[in-house]
Structures are given as structure tokens and as C-alpha cells.
Design a protein that fits this description.
Chain C: Keywords: Cytoplasm, Exosome, Nucleus, RNA-binding, rRNA processing. The complex is a heterotrimer of chains A (about 240), B (about 230) and C (about 290). Chain A is an alpha+beta fold. Chain A has four helices and nine strands, in the order E-E-E-E-H-E-H-E-E-H-E-E-H. With about 230 residues, chain B is α+β, with helices and mostly antiparallel strands. Chain B has one domain: Ribosomal Protein S5, domain 2, CATH 3.30.230. Classes of the chains: A alpha+beta (about 240), B alpha+beta (about 230), C alpha+beta (about 290). Strand 9 of chain B pairs antiparallel with strand 14 of chain C.
Chain lengths: ~240, ~230, ~290
């Protein structure tokens, strides 16, 4: 039982948002010079940094592979959450999240002319501060970083989380809400086609409620896409100005 | 007055031994009083394609403490040993090979880094690896009253305000490696530099003598006074 | 800018081709840098002994007890300090612990691969740890909650986000700024339950005895002294020298590796290091003042 009401009688959540509101979002691309592509995203208090290296020569000799290999490394800084977590090299939870992100992006990358089949794309995700919604922030940041690196993709991958609490669907859950028994559904969408590329739920949600939660999450993804799109366009305009 | 009745610029009783490891290409053991390090050299030998350099030998160092698990402290020693000897060894004479330096601390009574540098020097000479110069190292400390002591023991180091290890080369006379920690002034640093330089020169004469004895024994000839 | 590499084909049969600057830099990095340095500038335009512009920010990570971000040119390092409660050792029942650690993940540069920490990260972590213990940076007794029962352990995790050379200077500056930014909660030890009760807000700052800051130099071609080497220059240096200076202009550490350097040069570096440490300290003070004001 949390001390706060997840949704107060006035209809406000713990951080003052209304149920279908997204947290304040700010994103930037091209943050670092070393990586081929990089992006930084701040969704509320969750801060995520992604660096993409590639496509480049693979470090291991690969057997016949269709398309470039994507290696995802997902790291959470030990000072990022309330309790300090010492980073264990083979932490299964981190590897699971990394593998989910890898599977989300694998079918999206176009290969052929511009991207060699036997190349490697390394995605390094670093979570600097955690306040819920790490998975979808990481996916959004990876989309931006991939675009910044110039990796050709079929569409943006936009992700958002939603949950259900006492007759209302909530969008973009923060840490307090995630840990308070609110079932969290993370949805990854390809906005152009409307296809769902990622669906992740780790608690119980009644089937009757599922449809409305999914719809709310999808709307969140659409709004996320608009944000990501405007960030990319702004960044490209800046680039175009300097490339005279 | 120091616990073992030495003067401030006296080095402890030194022991050396060459060629103790029969399977290594060269080996040397150096002792400052009770601090003792044994070094084995393997090479120049073949190494994997991934590691080789086309124009020079690759120097690899492995350093083990007297007891306990290997920590970042040993990594720092390895880095300092490697960078010291990378410049001393004429690695361009052995391209696409590897020279492996393995140091094992037998007993730690202070000044382990200096001991291992001297032990490695002995081992390199024993292995006959071509060198640009002879590198010798010694450490010193400054206590809370600002007095400089050469070659401190572990007991004396407990009272140290700052500790310094210097490695000098005998051709240019300059500092090859230096590790200084603690709080000290520039003047204290300069005194340490001077005292260690003198100590280092003495050690170089000692190493030369040790090598000479070994060669005399091997060849049965008498080289006389050098 | 094209670079000519060989004589004309008609005179001696050798082929004549020009390389663009980028290719030349990749194929002959030493020669590329030599052409700049022999004229008194470096590949990034700096004079030989100028340090890169530094930028310091504190308090950006709210989940940590203290945090800072330091940028030296493009080398970006973030330090987060988290305080936990632990039992002290029997030999020092009132002493807490400070555990600094630097991580150079695969994120920060293509030269680092994912996996266990490499030699550079381990050696820098070790040297920073030595500086903290040997200079008595922090009164470890200040971290005592209940003698013999509970003390604070400060885990200082320094993460490099972008590596463009000279992680030591950036990491040490980030550690000092973050320590200065740390706020611990007022806490009491409950004898009966054997637990520590901490206040909800973090209010107590740390007292730092010393503010050691590092300046790294390199020697190129055994002749030219350069300050604050970039990651392009680092593998080409014949020797490197790091000097740590505190707020009273005392030396707190010297780490030298590589080929021989003479005494005058070392003294010159000590002077330059003093100025750099002073400038960095001013930046850290400004950043802390800004954070306190907001």
C-alpha cells in the first residue's frame, strides 16, 4: 500500500499529471563525437543516453547471417536509482532487456545496398537516472541514435508504457506507479503502418481492460513519434545550415 | 634514528640472483632487505596474430602480489613496469614477437615497485634481451617532519607523509618512471629526486657486478675490475 | 587539404598520389601529428601547452547523494556518489569508507569493448584511490554513525560517457566536485533494532581537507612537451606525466611513465600543473555556487 493515492479523487496522479498525460520529454541527437550516432532522452526524471557504433567490421567472425548483427549492451548506472546496484557483468535482467531491444530493432533495419550483410551495429545504452519507463525511453533513444548514425530503417520505433488503476488507464508510468502494483504494459509501435513490434507485460491485467490500455499506449506512441520526428528535423536543419 | 639503525640515505642489504628459473629464457631475483621479487622473462617468442605488431615486439607484463587476490593495485604496477621497459627494450629488433615479463612478489616489506623494476632488469640481462640502457629503481619517503629516508621498510612507511619511487636510466640520467603519492612540496620532491638518483647509481653498480659474476662463472674467465 | 606523398612518376618511377587529410591521419598518425607539432600547434589547433576548455556541472543526478559532470574538451565524465550504511572494520571502528571507481564502457569510445574493465580503467581507478587515501582527502571519521556499529560508505562511481583522451584529469575533477556536492541525511543508530534511521532530506555536507586536481602532460617524439593529450595523440606519446596539485599548491601525486625525462622539464610541468589546478578549482567553485543558489 503506497502512502500516496495513485490517482487522487480530483483525478491527479502523484506527480500532478492527468491519467492520459505524458511526462515532460526532451531529446537531443548528436550528443557525442566518438560514436557514429548518439542520442540523449529525458522523460520526466528518467535520463537515458544511447551511443550507436556501426555499421562496422564485426569483432567475431560471423557465420552466414542475414543482415547486419545488432549487439545491444544495456547498462544501468549504479547511482541511477534509489538503491545502489552494483553492476554484475552477467545480470540476467539487464541481458533480458538488451535482448528485447535487439529483437525490436532487428526486423526494422534495412540492409542491402547501404548496409553490408555481415557488418555489426553496436548499440550501447546507458541509463543515468531511473524513474520508471526505462525500457521505452531506451527504445526511443535508440531510434534517434540509429537515425543519427545514418542506419537505414523501415520506420521509427516509438515506445510508451501504460497501466490500469481502478477504472482509469494511465499513460507513461513513473517509478512510484510501477512499483505500486499497477500493471505496466510497454508497447513498441511502427507509427507508419500501425504495427506493434514490442508488447511487454509483467503483471496481471484483466483481458477486458487490455484493449483500452493498449489503445492509450498506442496514442502515447503516436505523440512520441511527433516529438522524435521534430527533434530529427531540427537536428537535420542545423546540419544543413553548417554544410554550406 | 631509523628502526634498523641505517642512515637516512642507506639502502637495505641487497641480494640478487640470476638464472634461478631454468625453463624461463631469463630470470632474476632482487631483494631490498626483506622485500623480494622474482621475475621471469619468456621471449622473444611467437604470439597470436591478433596481438602481434609488425615493427616491434609486444611487451606483456604480469605482476602478482605476495598474497591475496590480484587487485587494481597490481594493474597499476603492471602498467608502470610495462611502460618502463617498453622504452628500454630494443623491441624493433624482434618484430612480430612477444616478450612476456612475469613478476612474483615473494615477500613485501615496502618498496615493492622498485624491487620489481630491479628484478626485471636483472632478468632481462639474464635473458640477453637487447636493451637501450640499464634502468634501476629505488624508493624513498618523507616523514611528517619533512625528513627524507631512502629505501623505507613497511614499518617506516606507516609514518610516511609521502612515498616516492623513482626509476632512472643510466644513459641519459633522466627519470623513466615515477610514482609519488601523499602530500609533499616541490622542495621535498627535489630532495627525494637527488637522494634516489644517488641510490639508483649505487644499485646500477651492484647490478653490473652481479651480471659480471654470473658471466665469469659461466665462461670461467676472469674479467678483472671493470 | 591534400598531402603529397612521393616524387613525380617521370623522374624515378615511383608513383605519385595525394591523400586527403583524413586518410593520411588514419594511415600515418604519427607523421600527421608530427607535421603540426613541429610547427608549434596540435592537430586540434591548440598551442602545445594549452589545456582544453573545461566545463563543470553539479547536482544533475537527483537519485544520487552527490553528482557532477565534467567536460574537458569533448571528454565527458559523470560522477555519482551514493551513500550506504555498512559495518566498520574492528581496527577502525569510527572510520567510514570512500570507494572511487572509474568505468570506461564501450559507449564512450570505439577502442573499448564490452566486458570486464580494461587496464586503463583499472589503473586510473587505482591511482585515484591512492590519491584519496594518501592525501587524507576526507576525514573518514566524519562518516561515522555509531562507533563500531554503523558507518557510511560512499560509493563514487565515475562513468565516462565520451572518451577523447585524458580520463584521469576529468575523473579526478568530477570526483572532487561530486564529493563537494554530497549531502548526507541526519541519521541515528537504533540500539535495540540494530538499524539506522535516516531523515527524509539530505542536508549534511562533507568536509574536504584537500582538493587535489590533476594535470596530464605528454612528450611527443622525445622532444615536444604537450599538455592534455587527446585520444589521437595518446598512443603516439613517448612518455606521459600526471601531476596532482591541491588548493595550497602542495603536490599530491606524480605519476610518470614512458621514456626518460629530465629534471628541468618536470619542474616546468609542475608549474603548469599548478595553474591548471587553480583554474579547475575556480570552475568547480562556480558550479557549486550555481547549484547552491538554485
Amino acid at each position: 500500500m503506497s502512502r500516496f493515492d495513485i490517482v487522487s479523487p480530483e483525478g491527479l496522479r502523484v506527480d500532478g499529471r492527468r491519467p492520459p498525460e505524458l511526462r515532460r520529454l526532451s531529446c537531443r541527437t548528436g550528443v557525442f563525437a566518438q560514436a557514429d550516432g548518439s542520442a540523449y532522452i529525458e522523460q520526466g526524471n528518467t535520463k537515458c543516453l544511447v551511443a550507436v557504433y556501426g555499421p562496422r567490421e564485426p569483432s567475431k567472425r560471423l557465420l552466414t547471417e542475414k543482415g547486419p548483427t545488432i549487439n545491444v549492451e544495456y547498462n544501468v548506472a549504479s547511482f541511477s536509482s534509489g538503491e545502489r546496484k552494483t553492476k554484475m557483468r552477467k545480470d540476467r535482467r539487464l541481458m533480458e532487456i538488451a535482448s528485447v531491444i535487439k529483437q525490436t530493432f532487428e526486423p526494422i533495419i534495412c540492409y542491402g545496398q547501404n548496409v553490408a550483410s555481415r557488418s555489426e551495429i553496436d548499440v550501447n545504452i546507458q541509463i543515468l537516472q531511473l524513474d520508471g519507463g526505462a525500457l521505452h525511453a531506451a527504445i526511443n533513444a535508440t531510434t534517434l541514435a540509429m537515425i543519427d548514425a545514418g542506419v537505414p530503417m523501415r520506420d521509427f520505433v516509438c515506445a510508451c508504457s501504460a497501466g490500469w488503476y481502478k477504472d482509469t488507464a494511465l499513460l507513461d508510468l513513473n517509478h512510484l506507479e510501477e512499483s505500486a502494483d499497477v500493471p505496466t504494459l510497454t508497447v513498441g509501435l511502427l507509427p507508419k503502418s500501425g504495427k506493434v513490434t514490442l508488447l511487454s507485460l509483467e503483471s496481471r491485467l484483466h483481458l477486458d481492460k487490455f484493449q483500452s490500455v493498449l489503445e492509450l499506449a498506442s496514442q502515447g506512441c503516436e505523440r512520441m513519434r511527433d516529438e522524435l520526428d521534430s527533434t530529427i528535423r531540427k537536428a537535420t536543419q542545423e546540419l544543413a545550415k553548417t554544410a554550406l | 634514528m631509523r628502526p634498523d639503525k641505517r642512515n637516512t640515505n642507506d639502502i637495505r642489504v641487497t641480494h640478487t640472483a640470476l638464472g634461478q628459473l631454468h625453463r624461463a629464457d631469463g630470470s632474476g631475483r632482487y631483494q631490498f632487505g626483506d622485500s623480494s621479487v622474482l621475475c621471469g622473462i619468456y621471449g622473444p617468442a611467437a604470439i597470436g596474430l591478433r596481438d602481434e605488431k609488425l615493427d616491434r615486439a609486444v611487451i606483456e607484463v604480469s605482476f602478482s602480489a605476495a598474497h591475496g587476490k590480484s587487485t587494481t593495485r597490481e594493474r597499476l604496477h603492471e602498467r608502470l613496469l610495462r611502460s618502463t621497459f617498453e622504452t628500454a627494450i630494443l623491441s624493433a629488433l624482434h618484430p612480430r614477437t612477444g616478450i612476456r615479463i612475469t613478476c612474483q612478489t615473494l615477500c613485501d616489506d615496502g618498496a615493492v615497485l622498485a624491487t620489481s623494476i630491479n628484478a626485471t632488469m636483472l632478468a632481462l640481462m639474464d635473458a640477453g634481451i637487447p636493451l637501450r640502457s640499464v634502468i634501476t629503481a629505488v624508493s624513498c619517503m618523507v616523514d611528517k617532519e619533512g625528513e627524507v629516508f631512502l629505501d623505507p621498510t613497511a614499518l617506516e612507511l606507516k609514518e610516511a607523509q609521502s612515498t616516492h619511487t623513482f626509476a632512472f636510466d643510466n644513459v641519459s640520467g633522466g627519470v623513466v618512471s615515477c610514482e609519488s603519492t601523499g602530500v609533499f612540496t616541490e622542495e621535498e620532491y627535489e630532495s627525494c629526486y637527488d637522494i634516489c638518483k644517488q641510490g639508483s647509481d649505487a644499485i646500477e653498480r651492484f647490478l653490473r657486478h652481479a651480471l659480471q659474476k654470473k658471466l665469469e662463472k659461466q665462461s670461467g674467465l676472469d674479467f678483472g675490475k671493470s | 587539404m591534400d598531402i603529397d606523398t612521393a616524387a613525380d612518376a617521370t623522374t624515378n618511377g615511383a608513383s605519385h598520389f595525394t591523400l586527403d587529410a583524413d586518410t593520411f591521419r588514419k594511415i600515418h598518425p604519427a607523421e600527421y601529428n608530427r607535421r603540426f607539432i613541429s610547427q608549434g600547434v596540435r592537430a586540434d589547433g591548440r598551442p602545445l601547452q594549452r589545456f582544453r576548455k573545461a566545463n563543470v556541472n553539479v547536482g544533475s543526478i537527483t537519485t544520487a547523494n552527490g553528482s557532477s559532470m565534467v567536460r574537458l574538451g569533448n571528454t565527458t565524465v559523470i560522477c555519482g556518489i551514493k551513500a550506504e550504511v555498512t559495518e566498520p572494520t574492528p581496527e577502525a571502528p569510527r572510520a567510514g569508507f570512500l570507494v572511487p571507481n572509474l568505468d570506461l564502457p564501450a559507449l564512450c569510445s570505439p577502442q573499448f569493448r564490452p566486458g570486464p574493465p580494461g587496464e586503463l580503467a583499472q589503473t586510473i581507478s587505482e591511482y585515484i584511490n591512492q590519491i584519496c587515501t594518501s592525501t587524507n582527502l576526507l576525514n573518514l571519521d566524519d562518516l561515522c554513525i555509531a562507533s563500531g556499529q554503523a558507518v557510511w560508505v560512499l560509493h563514487a562511481d565515475i562513468l565516462c560517457l565520451n572518451y577523447e583522451g585524458n580520463a584521469l584529469d576529468a575523473a579526478l575533477a568530477a570526483l572532487i566536485a561530486a564529493l563537494w556536492n554530497v549531502r548526507l541525511p541526519k541519521s541515528t543508530y537504533d540500539e535495540l533494532e540494530g538499524t539506522v534511521r535516516a531523515a527524509a532530506t539530505n542536508t549534511i555536507p562533507l568536509v574536504l581537507n584537500r582538493l587535489p586536481l590533476a594535470a596530464t602532460f605528454g612528450v611527443f617524439d622525445a622532444q615536444h612537451l604537450i599538455a592534455d593529450p587527446t585520444d589521437q595523440e595518446e598512443p603516439l606519446l613517448s612518455s606521459q606525466l600526471a601531476i596532482v596539485v591541491d588548493q595550497e599548491d602542495n603536490l599530491c601525486g606524480i605519476l610518470k611513465e614512458g621514456s626518460a625525462m629530465d629534471r628541468e622539464r618536470m619542474v616546468e610541468c609542475i608549474g603548469l600543473a599548478r595553474n591548471r589546478a587553480q583554474a579547475l578549482r575556480r570552475l568547480i567553485d562556480e558550479a557549486l555556487a550555481k547549484a547552491d543558489a538554485s
